[in-house]
């Protein structure tokens, strides 16, 4: 169904799907040895994100002032699907963990995280959460297990300058995948740059194939009798891969660097080497801050082009409390979640203060669109509060904001999505690197492999 959408302030960190290496210490601190309760929290921005890190440190100081006897120790550990499960099972994680939207349902089913409903309901605005953003964080009994931050919907990111050089109208980006194909070929011919780039490794090939399949009307997973199975061989998914195959081998519009992850693509885009890729508006901030994009006026964002699906993939950062946290640390963790993530996304005063602080840094990006965490009325009030500090060209996001309202927002496959993505990465890579890749047989083999794993997980 159509969803209402408006822009919101971007706070200290952006959802990253890349499997970056993180670091944190779980050893006792001086605060612990002196008697203070130390709660260890993921979500601390890296040193390269100076405005975000400064905001995080201020939040910590404000929280500790409001909660005497509790100290917060930040960690910039980033979710890695290859190591996360082992660390979580071994209890070698912080008291607050940050995971993508692929993970909550699995963690809830496996009882590896704690429900936080009771304590979260003590906050007077709990009932105003957007039900959609809590859906993937809730069990069958209605218990909530996390707090979302910066939920997003995937779209088409494009270089407005390359569009102009290719004779395309940057204010009218492609609305269908045939139009994307045509535009990519033209950009490649006229500019010598990659017209379109599709991520293909580190589980991101499967992730992007999922969103492309949604746009063609596909589903990658179904549930029957309480069991999940992969459905990777549907015709929409095959059509999506045939499109990529044609763009690669007939049009030659995908460039020369084919085995890439999100960071690789954004880095190339920031350097003006890519015409289009699938991403959220939040990649603006990564292109500017992390990869030094100087010509940020070239950044454009559009809703996900459609070819029969009228849907786009949604995601975001989710903060949860692991089972390993004891009662005292869990209670302090929920206090932090409410203070650091729920309240700033609801309070106009806090949102304005954070936007003002971030806008003081020339590398910041205030006003980049995200999905509303609360109701539309509250989001409109937030938008008005941050308006004086918005430092991005909202006109360049107009196609995205205007077109997204007509699309169904679909979550990632709810159970063990990373296993689907792992199986689909080689499929995408084969299509991009082998002219004679057999799409049908590749998908059939991947589906068989994933379903064997899902069956074993759900015994």
Automatic annotation (TrEMBL):
The keyword Repeat does not apply. The keyword Membrane does not apply. It comes from the Bacteria. InterPro entries: Bact_solute-bd_prot1, SBP. Keywords: Signal. Residues 1-23 form the signal peptide. This is Extracellular solute-binding protein. SUPFAM superfamilies: Periplasmic binding protein-like II.
């Amino acid at each position: 169904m159509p969803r209402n959408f408006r822009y919101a302030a971007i706070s200290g960190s952006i959802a990253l799907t890349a499997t970056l290496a993180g670091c944190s210490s779980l050893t006792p601190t001086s605060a612990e040895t002196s008697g203070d309760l130390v709660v260890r929290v993921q979500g601390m921005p890296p040193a390269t994100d100076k405005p975000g890190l400064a905001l995080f440190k201020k939040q910590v100081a404000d929280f500790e002032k409001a909660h005497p006897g509790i100290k917060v120790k930040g960690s910039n550990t980033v979710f890695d699907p290859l190591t996360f499960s082992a660390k979580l099972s071994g209890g070698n994680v912080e008291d607050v963990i940050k995971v993508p939207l692929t993970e909550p349902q699995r963690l809830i089913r496996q009882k590896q995280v704690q429900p936080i409903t009771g304590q979260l309901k003590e906050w007077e605005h709990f009932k105003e959460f957007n039900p959609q953003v809590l859906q993937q964080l809730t069990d069958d009994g209605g218990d909530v297990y996390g707090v979302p931050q910066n939920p997003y919907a995937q779209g088409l990111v494009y270089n407005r300058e390359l569009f102009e050089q290719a004779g395309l109208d940057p204010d009218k980006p492609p609305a269908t995948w045939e139009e994307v194909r045509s535009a990519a070929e033209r950009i490649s011919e006229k500019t010598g740059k990659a017209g379109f780039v599709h991520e293909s490794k580190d589980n991101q090939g499967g992730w992007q194939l999922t969103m492309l399949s949604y746009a063609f009307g596909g589903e990658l997973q179904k549930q029957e009798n309480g069991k999940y199975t992969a459905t990777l061989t549907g015709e929409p998914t095959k059509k999506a891969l045939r499109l990529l195959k044609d763009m690669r081998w007939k049009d030659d519009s995908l460039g020369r660097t084919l085995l890439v992850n999100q960071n690789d693509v954004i880095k190339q885009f920031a350097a003006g080497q890519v015409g289009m890729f699938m991403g959220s508006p939040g990649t603006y901030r990564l292109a500017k801050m992390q990869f030094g994009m100087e010509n940020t006026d070239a950044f454009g964002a559009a809703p996900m082009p459609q070819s029969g699906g009228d849907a786009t993939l949604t995601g975001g950062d989710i903060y949860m409390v692991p089972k390993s946290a004891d009662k005292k640390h869990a209670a302090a963790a929920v206090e932090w979640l409410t203070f650091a993530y729920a309240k700033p996304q609801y309070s106009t005063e806090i949102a304005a203060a954070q936007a003002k602080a971030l806008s003081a840094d020339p590398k910041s990006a205030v006003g980049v669109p995200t999905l509303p965490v609360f109701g539309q009325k509250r989001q409109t009030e937030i938008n008005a509060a941050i308006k004086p500090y918005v430092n991005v060209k909202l006109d360049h996001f107009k196609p995205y904001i205007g077109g997204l309202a007509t699309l169904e927002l679909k979550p990632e496959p709810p159970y063990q999505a990373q296993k689907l993505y792992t199986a689909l990465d080689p499929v995408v890579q084969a299509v991009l690197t082998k002219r004679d890749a057999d799409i049908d047989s590749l998908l059939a083999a991947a589906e068989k492999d994933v379903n064997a794993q899902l069956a074993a997980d759900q015994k």
